[in-house]
Every structure is written in C-alpha cells, then in structure tokens.
C-alpha cells in the first residue's frame, strides 16, 4: 500500500504545534478513531521532499497502537529516506506533523510504502528495544555516545561522555548491548585504533558499506547520527559523501556550511571548532620553571601550503633569535619534503607523542602557531585552544578565526616586525605576561571546552542536560550594618553566578531586624553559635564549595570565577592564592609571585575556596572560628588534603580602603 500526501504549513511562533492526519485532536495517547491498519512487524519506507524556511523544523510523527494502547511514537526527518520497522504488537498507525519555530514549510511529496517480509535483511536486525531515555539524564557524562574517532578526538571527548567504541566487524553486537543515545563519527583517518581506516573518507573502489549499514541501523532505532569534519576546508571533498548521510553535520569551517546544506539537502549544519579538555590542557605547572623560549610542536611541509611555509620560515627565524625549540611531528621521516630547513634543524629536539604534549604546552614561555587556513571564522589549529588552556601565551600568524574568537588574547603577528615587537613587550613586562596567561585560561574554560562543544551538539537536537556549575557559599562574619553592606557589596561584585552569601552574626537582639532588611534569595543571615549544631559543611551551606570573605580585604569581580574555574582541572580540596597582592602603606606589593598554578603546603582561608566534601573534624562552628581567626590551612595538608594555588589577581590583602585605581590594576 502507498500513501501520498501534499501539505503547506505556516507557523507564527516558537511553540511546538501538531497537525494530525484524519484525526480532529492531538491527544496521541488516545486510540485513533480512524486508524490506519497495519500488520505487526511490517516495514515502512518513508520518503519525503519539503521546502522548509530558516527558523522552522518539521517532522513526521508516526504513532503506533495495539488494540488497547499506544505503544510508541517515532519522529521522521524531512528530505531523507527513512526505514521504520513496526513493533510486534502494532496493529494501527496515526500520522501527524510536529512543527517548531516560526516560518513556512511546504511538503511537496510524502510517500509511505509498506513492505511485508517473512525474513528481514540480516544487515538490519529487528528492533532491540533501545529506549529513548534522553530526558532521564542528569549529566552529560552519562550520555552514551557510539563513536568512530581518531586518537586526538577520542582523548578529548573521553572525559566528557561515555564513549562506546566498536569495529566494522562487531558494531552490531556492541551497540545492541550498549544502547547508545547517539552516534558520533568524525572525519577519521584511522578511526578506533585503525579498525575504520579507509572506511569513512572517499577512496577508490570502496563503497563504505559498513558505515552505511551502521547508519541504517541507527536510523531504524531513531538514534541521531552526527558527523564532524575536523579537516575542513581542505578535506571537504574527501568526506562530503559520508557526511551528507548523517542527521547532523558539524564542520570546523563555518564557511563550508552552505556547501554542506546544499549537498545534504537540509539545514542541520553547524560550525564546531576545536576546544580544550581540562584533564589534559590545564595550567598546573610541571614542577620546573618554564624555559624562556618559543616552542613549536607540529610539522613542516616543504612542498605544500606555500603561503604557510613562507610565513612559518619568517616566524621561526624571529623565534630563533629569542630561543626556539621544535618538536617535529615527522621527526622519524627522512624525506626531504618533511624536514625543517637547515637553519632550524639544530632547534629540533625530537618528536612528542600527544600524551606528552603538556611538555610543549607548559614547558616554555610561548607557543608558536602558524595557520594554513587564514580566512575561516572558525578553523584554526587545536594547539591555540590547548595552549591557552595550559596557561601559555600564543604567538600566531594571522587567522580570521583567531582574531574573531580570541581578539588580543592571542598575539597575532601580521608581519615579522610585529612579532618582534610583541615578544619584546612580553619579555620586559612580567605583569602583562601573567595577564595574558589568565585571560587565555578564563576564555577557554568559560567557552571552549569539549563539554561545551557536546552541550552545543545536544542543544541543536533540542536536548538540554543541565550540567550545573558547582555552587559556592560565601561566608562573612559581620558585626555592624556597615560590615553587612560591605560584605553584600563584595559578594554582588562577583561575576560567578552560582553563589550565595551567608552572613554570620553574634548579636541575637538584632537578628530579626537584619533578616527583614537584608535577607534575600541569595543572602542568608545566621547566628554563629547556631553552627554548633552542624557537623558537615555541605549540610550547612548546601553548596559544593565555601569561601570566606574578610572585610579588610578587596575581592575583585572575577575572584570567585577564577577559583571556581580551577575546580574543573584540579580535584584539590582547597584552592586559593598563595601568590597574591598586599596593600602596604597604600602601595601594592606582590607576594610569592612564583607560586601560581602549583600545589602548595599552605593557604589562607580568606583567599581560598574549600570543598565542603572534605572530612573536617569537629563541628561547623569549629571550622568557621578557625577561619575567622585566620588560622592557615597547612594543618589540613598534614592530614592529607590537597592545596592548590591559582593566579594572584583579583585579591588584595588589607586592600578594601585602597584607591579604586589601585584595585583596578589587579582586577582582570
């Protein structure tokens, strides 16, 4: 039997709307009054052609019913052939369209063909009850992602989601058991330890039959499929024939989006640049001082990318004058075309496996980056994201993408003289160097981690998994109205949003007046003695971390933000500022400047955040009294705690009365 229809839709708002075929209601839980009768287990082949304006999405909903109840609903994308095997209990169907967003949609052709098979194609096995449990997920980490990835991307997403790997020979068995939420395939050259080599890109005499069978299996089970071409724009042609078969397409080059949309005949195409992964790319120092040199970790091609080669020769020459170290990705190759020019070969110290890349990213004062693609708004080397996250300033040739995404955080050199000038400025101004370091870390960790990239992918599917930022409770001991208002001012200045303020008071007589005047959704007032009833900080604060604000100190607007960012790359129990600024005779003095981004043996409570999960001894009152009395935290180190010192900015000891200009000097 064949069903053919022709529709036109106009939707005026963002709300999801439904229109049902042959039914006058959209209550899909009810049995249809005019059911389309089918046989259990039969196959539907659904073909469609639609013109859909930007801003609107439309899907065909296929609801299956037994004689007594609704069984399930499947959603079918337009402009793609879709195979759907009905449930073994299904005896009736109902069709409807789901329209989301404002715009116009014209369904030019919709055809549903029914097939009856005594035995299904072995390459597409029967539906194995793979539930759609997206909405039960609490964390992105719980997302089960079937993947075909090369080593770099595999290690980047491994800490973000639950990756499921497989081979061309066992994918059906593995995925049936693992029940993935989505399939994620990149422009892989080797793919899952070489098992998918030559099976993703376009090669002679290769039909990519394993990939096509995998996609058909996922489509049959409504498992979304995602393709990421990390090689755009250079290798667009290599992977377009595979990419266009996926539900969602991502590209490192936003300029290629129109080409993908034209080839794939849908608009679900998005830019996805590289990013950083906190467990690998972080500013925790190696334990030895950085060498005052420029490091380049990459490859040289004498007969490719002529413009890049010429620019690289210029930048290497200038870097060599300051001290240059090269880790050659092709160090083991002897062909002339892969060798660095003779004048730089003495700077080559060997190769560096990716697992040891921290040596290049954190062992030297600067990282050199040279771009092959200069006009893309999103495509540039992953080393830029990874190096900045590692706390090392980047010297780079021009790239539109770097300029648009990072601005002056990256030192972009349009010409050799400009590179010389920027290097000279950094070498003579340690504060400027440290500022560059902090701004790079903050920018990457706020916007460009692989967790952010995965959240973006899910958002484009209409799936939101609220991975909330860890919460912090700020504690302040107050005795007067002036103290309260000063504490609230310092608290409200903080740009970190997942926070609350707990004001501790001794005076019972004024407590109700204080509560009425100052308490709010983010501000609580508590009698200090009352904390004797608590033994766990987590229970008292209802927060992941605690910070203690002393009224004599100045806390810059990003004080909490930068300390909370550090919780993403270190599991330390106490994170603070062993390196800091102090106001002495109305002057700013930097103390212990050498202990940024290092594990330490001591911190002070009034410039630290503390994990409320740490097993503190005694009552909450005992801990709070110790911190109010400014007892240092070294005692916790002696009991096995980890203490980490982050950056020195956004805090001044005894700096509350300093001039605003002095405060601004450290307020990055």
Plain-language structure description:
The protein is of the alpha/beta class and 668 residues long. It has four domains: 2-115, Jelly Rolls (Sandwich), CATH 2.60.120; 134-271, Rossmann fold, CATH 3.40.50; 291-381 and 394-424; 472-665, Spore Coat Polysaccharide Biosynthesis Protein SpsA, Chain A (Alpha-Beta Complex). It is built from 19 helices and 33 strands. The strands form six sheets. An eight-stranded mixed β-sheet has the order 24-23-22-25-31-27-32-30. It comes from Listeria grayi FSL F6-1183.
What's the gist of this structure?
This protein has 19 helices and 33 strands. It is α/β, with parallel strands linked by helices and 668 residues long.
Strand percentage, roughly? 25-35%
Overall pLDDT:
88
Q: How are the strands of the largest sheet arranged?
A: 24-23-22-25-31-27-32-30
Helix content: 25-40%
CATH class term of the largest domain: Alpha Beta
CATH 4th-level superfamily of the largest domain: Spore Coat Polysaccharide Biosynthesis Protein SpsA, Chain A
Tally of DSSP helical segments: 19
Oligomer: single chain
Computed over alpha carbons, the radius of gyration is 30 Å
* Class by SSE composition: alpha/beta
Quote the distance from N terminus to C terminus: 68 Å
Reported by name, the CATH topology of the largest domain is Spore Coat Polysaccharide Biosynthesis Protein SpsA, Chain A
CATH architecture of the largest domain: Alpha-Beta Complex
Low-confidence stretches: 117-129
The dominant shape is globular
